[in-house]
Amino acid sequence: MINKLPFYSKIAYIFVGLYAFIFLLILGKEIFIPIIYATIGAILLTSVRLLTI
Fold first, then answer.
1. C-alpha angle 45/37/42, rounded to 5°?
2. pLDDT for 1
3. 49 or 31, which is more confident?
């Protein structure tokens, strides 16, 4: 087996990754929010179109 990392090292990797993920979400919220709204709108419009056929 590959040498196992100590518990504190695994926790550090998790916290650093979580921090980076949240930081990228905060920086990219001007991009992500319109994409999310467009996706929700497209899903709603598709369901309306399917109901009218």
1. 20
2. 46
3. 31
Helices (H), the chain: 7-27, 29-52
Given pLDDT bands bounded at 50, 70 and 90, which one contains residue 53? low
Q: CA nearest 35: which of 48, 43, 24, 23?
A: 43
Residue 26 to residue 32: CA distance in whole angstroms: 10
CA distance 25 to 32: 8
pLDDT digits (tens, 9 = 90+) for 6-25: 989 999 999 999 999 999 98
Structure tokens at 50: 């399917």
Tell me which residue has tokens 């319109």.
34
Q: DSSP code of 9?
A: H
